[in-house]
Amino acid sequence: MTSAPRNYDIAELRRLDVAHHLPAQQDYKLIEDMGGSRIVTHADGCYIHDGDGNRILDGMAGLWCVTIGYGRDELADVAAEQMRELPFYNTFFKTVTPPAVMLATKISSLTNDRLPHVFFNASGSEANDTVFRMVRHYWKTKGEPERTVFISRHNAYHGSTVAGVSLGGMKSMHEQGNLPIPGIEHVRQPYWFNEGRDMDPDAFGIACAEAIEDKILEIGADKVAAFIGEPIQGAGGVIIPPKTYWPEVERICRKYGILLVCDEVICGFGRTGNWWGHETVGVKPDMIAMAKGLSSGYLPISAVAVSKEIVDVLKTGGDFVHGFTYSGHPVAAAVALRNIEIIQREQLVERTRDDTGPYLAKALAGLADHPMVGEVRSAGLIGAVEIVADKATGARFGGAEGTAGPTVRDACIANGLMVRGIRDTIVMCPPLIITHQQIDDMIAIIRRSLDECSAELRAGEAPPHDDTTDRAIS
Ligand code: PXG
After folding, report:
1. Span 189-216, mean pLDDT?
2. Which one of 127, 143, 346, 407 is least enclosed by Cβ atoms within 10 Å?
3. Closest Cα to atom 22, ligand 1: which residue?
4. What is the pLDDT of residue 6?
5. How many domains does one find in the chain?
6. Of 345, 376, 411, which one is at a domain's C-terminal end?
7. In a domain, 284, yes or no
């Protein structure tokens, strides 16, 4: 149950928002010109409510995270209980709390104990910072200190900290703050619709994997520490690689003895119809980063799960001097644990795999005949619609990759659906509790919004850019 909305003074909150609050990844001047951000006041199930009285179907599960939907009393109760019993204790003083141990054990079991050791942090970015430091420390401890280089992909998203941005491949983020830091190399992304339509998808997948091998040979295999990738790129535009890609990536990593790291921050916890995105794409990583769906966003928590082989080496290296105040936070861990129990109890992974995922794929396929739709794609409950000016050639509005996505996204929001617009793509990632009817509503709103934007897009009006990753073309 969602508590009744409080009697907020929305106009005053918007004024104070402009005066004092700096939002994430935004153009502050744009927010000022808008007179402040939309104030989201409360939410239930798959819907968010704003201060203007709009009820919006949340096709983004918050920010790719509210897997079990909003308004779960059970999680509020668990948090309150844990706060009363023990609101905080750290994992620095040879100490730990029961929820942290139990959650680590649960995460290990979700990997079938293939990745039995778990390190906690508070965000996806911190998880990837942990990956970065742990991998380099591993190789040094193992006696191969030269192995320091990470290979990642253009248009990957791995977070907003210095290591996260650097591992990521968002050009607009690199341009701010002289990033990436040294020792990170980016290779092409497996984005068939944009970069490979002149090739058979399977051959394109192999070619993209070969780019990794070429890069390894260029750097020198003995200097490469790890390859990191999202099984499906989320913020980059829900890029689902051809099925040949990941197995070939794994083969190449194994051939050169390079660690394989999957960033499961979006793909984990059932999103793609399996517990892990790496299962969906068919590889066995040495390390995974997770966040978002770990707690369904109810509290900030992230984790890195690590193989026995890596931890055995770390055990020979003394202190690994890495960790955060909130590593293994007991309240966040207790909430995450119960969140996972709910996912299991309600069989949301199986439902995504067998029911709602295929239903979304079918519903999206029904959009494919739209004159402005170049491609639809999905895996489980993550999907994308490519917006094109010319269906036959795939040409974009304005003649080059642009911003049709944010334009159509704005229309979707006005029509009662929250989605993301990334360049010329509409992406969706609804809560895993979404129903068939809500999926139908989502697709109907996207169709209607495409129709409504058709004239504007054909007239070539420049739509506003109001979102950093929307701009991230690299
Ligand atoms: N890895 C992946 C794959 C992510 O999607 C992070 C790491 C970083 O997590 P934190 O918790 O530090 O934000 C993410 C986060 C977007 C968007 O534009 C996506 C994310 C964050 C902000 C915006 O869709 N994903």
Report:
1. 97
2. 143
3. 63
4. 86
5. 2
6. 345
7. yes
Q: Tell how far the Cα of 293 is from the centroid of ligand 1, in angstroms.
A: 12
Among 65, 265, 422, which is best to mutate for testing ligand 1, by the most ligand atoms less than 8 A from CB?
265
Distance 142 CA to ligand 1 centre (A): 31
Q: Which atom of ligand 1 is nearest to the CA of 230?
A: 3
Cα 433 from Cα 62, distance rounded (Å): 13
Residue 91 covered by a domain: yes
Question: How far, in Å, from the CA of 267 to the mean position of ligand 1?
Answer: 11
Same domain, 323 and 354: no
User: Does one domain contain both 166 and 313?
Assistant: yes
Residues 193 and 60 occupy one common structural domain: no
Atom number of ligand 1 nearest to Cα 60: 24
61 and 78 belong to one structural domain = no
Residue 159 CA: nearest ligand 1 atom is 8
CATH code for position 90: 3.40.640.10
Q: For 2-52, what is each residue's pLDDT tens digit?
A: 555 789 999 999 999 999 999 999 999 999 999 999 999 999 999 999 999
Pairing state between β 382-387 and 373-379: antiparallel
Among 449, 442, 395, 391, which residue's Cα sits nearest to residue 417? 442
- Mean of the pLDDT values across residues 156-172? 98
Instruction: Read off the pLDDT band of 473 (50, 70, 90).
Output: very low
By DSSP bridging, strand 425-428 and strand 420-422 are antiparallel
Cα separations in angstroms, 108 against 90, 95, 104, 323: 21, 20, 6, 20
**Same domain (yes/no): 196, 264:** yes
Strand partners, 153: 187
Q: Would you say residue 120 lies in a domain? A: yes
Residue 247: pLDDT over 60: yes
Looking at the CA of residue 302, tell me the nearest atom of ligand 1.
Answer: 11
137 CB-near residues (< 8 Å, 6+ apart): 314, 317, 320, 322
Q: Residue 3: its pLDDT value, please?
A: 53
- Residue 165 pLDDT > 50, yes or no? yes
Range of the domain at 442: 10-68+348-472
The pLDDT of residue 460: 80
- Asked whether residue 200 falls in the same domain as residue 270, the answer is yes
Residue 168 phi, psi dihedral angles, 5° rounding: -65, 165
Decide if 3 is inside a domain.
Answer: no
Per-residue model confidence as pLDDT tens digits over 344-363: 999 999 999 999 999 999 99
Domain identity same for 86 and 114: yes
Ligand 1 site, CB within 6 A: 63-64, 123-125, 128, 157-160, 164, 230, 234-235, 263, 265-266, 291, 420, 469
Distance of alpha carbon 428 from alpha carbon 64, whole angstroms: 9
